[in-house]
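Methods: example folding runs. The two proteins below were folded one after another, and each record is reproduced exactly as written to the output file, sequence line first and structure-token line second.
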Amino acid sequence: MRYRTAVLAFALACAAPVCAQGADGLNSTVTEQAPLPVWPKGVPSMKGWPGLASVPVKEELRENGEQVWNVTVPTLQPFLPDPAKATGTAVIVAPGGGFRLLAIHHEGTRVARWLAERGIAAFVLKYRLIQSFPGETNEAMRTRVQSMASGSGGIPGTEDGTEALRIVRANAAKWGVDPHRVGIVGFSAGGHVAGMTMFAANAADRPDFAGLIYGMPFGNPEPVIPPANLPFPEGTPKEPWLQPKPKPAPGRLPPMFLAMAQDDLAVGQGFRAFYDKLFGAGYRPEMHLYERGSHGFGAAQRGTTSDLWLEQFGRWIATEINSK
């Protein structure tokens, strides 16, 4: 009964406009709509996926509603800006939680509201998760998840993320969005989901830009990073300062914003290695390495420079995405 009451309250709160304090000190209206099903005609089969439980599970809220567990029916919740402030840009927000749970507010709704207050339509993606057995402890589940093949926990979430991009583009006119300025931002495991959408086989299905916040695409094998630029013609000087401006290669990945704290013991090495591979392939993503902030800073204020990442992400969108 308590679970049903919490879910009902959450749905009612999300269906109405709310008045939020903007960066300019004035109140701005953000319209929080009810979550929409990502797969209205039925969720794709996950037969054979190792994240399925052998018994039926129910989605549930934990930790005073801060966490969502056992997501089996993914949804997309729109947070639409005041039309007077709308920029036409949209961002899908993919919370993290190790594919076991979603930090739905800390890395979801609070980020979405911040973006919408500044004219960016935001859509919180509640993607499918590895299912928790009834009575299974957090530590027992963590151990079980670690035994799964690398990256396999994010397979359905990536499928949900790619479909969410299609949904936003298909409804661009209704939501006041430019279908060519639809990006995605993900945190931790959500960073894997966001990152993997960049590798969609059909380039038209990829996001127009991506933010990877202490999370990146991984797996075994890891996705192959395509070259960012075409090779220089034969005879081009080897010295970078003598070379002409490179020409973008077909199939290159979209613009990226990366951020993490250097005391992040969860993904620190892998995140920096991913940046190095991007750089080696010719990409020059926006990269922020904060001295402190640890893992999972999200929308929290920790008293470190990692608190600035949202402002910097918003500025990057304004200068690198909206200006082109």
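Second run, written to the same file directly after the first:
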Amino acid sequence: MRTAWVGAVCLAIAASASAQPRGGIVQATLTNGTTGAPGSAEKVTLLRLGGDMTPVKELGAVTGSFEITGIEVEGERPMLLQVTYGGVNYNQPVNFGRGYEAVTEVTVYDAFDAWEDQALVVTTSRFLYRREGDSLLVDKVFVVENRSSPPRTYYNPEGTFRFNLPTDDLIEMGAITASSALGVPVPQSASPLADGSGFVTKTAFKPGETQFAISYEVRYEGATFTANGQAFFPLADLLVFVAPPDIEIDAPGWELLGIEPEGRFAAMRLFNVSAGDPIRFTLSGGSVTAPPLTSSAGGGGSASQQTGARGTLTRIPDTTRASKWVIVVLMAAALGFGLLRTLWPPTPHRS
């Protein structure tokens, strides 16, 4: 009888213990991908993923290998290990599984702070203009490939990526995001350039591809809008999609590609764009509302600060934007590399 009672107590204790969060351990190794030597970091943060990324544990400066203990693990809920080196955050998902121990590796890189055309190439540039009544929703996607050798991260705290915004016609800022090829878009903030020619972000471009996306809404009062910007970086080609396709396009120097077979949009293309070249065209008329094409990141939310020639752009958090931008990026890639090559084969680049 006593034996049975002791056994029952032990089972109760075991069941209670299994129901409580258990202490987890993360064992991590840092590698410097530029030198191949052990890496270092100024700070390490372990974050719990969810609606908000909540810090769970923090460490100061580390080199080589490190360990985080006493982590409150909630089942198999994933976490994110964030390593900060040279002012740049490097993120690595952490999955404990059922063992409450996670072993992971994080690669960091030395940084360079000036744009180098041989190391940084804008491989894709796609713009989408979609009419909604008296406004145009604009989505712009750039893919920047960091080809630096040895691999390094391009980062300048004074600003890295420049772009245009039509400040006179701007109604609302939607989102500015950056992501790796397979990563989740991360919100970016932007500030005006001192000469008034555009805006700049502090995005870190790590080795490989980074997708940079911008959305905003502009006035289309009187059913006319003139894009009057410039290229800040060399572009092998620039593709612009316009919906609905009955919008009239006045674009001297552009190759007008016509309307795609399903009648959703018209397209035009500009080859061999050099840094400093103007990007100009005028849109006018067209049906009041474009047919469904893709989810736009331009709607919803508003800028937290007034946007103007001397203002500062700040993105308001919107948990739906990440999925919207995935759709936009996939649309741009599919149209840019698949559909357009079928409909309109590339012609020789103009000299």
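Comment on the second run: The longest helix spans residues 321-343.
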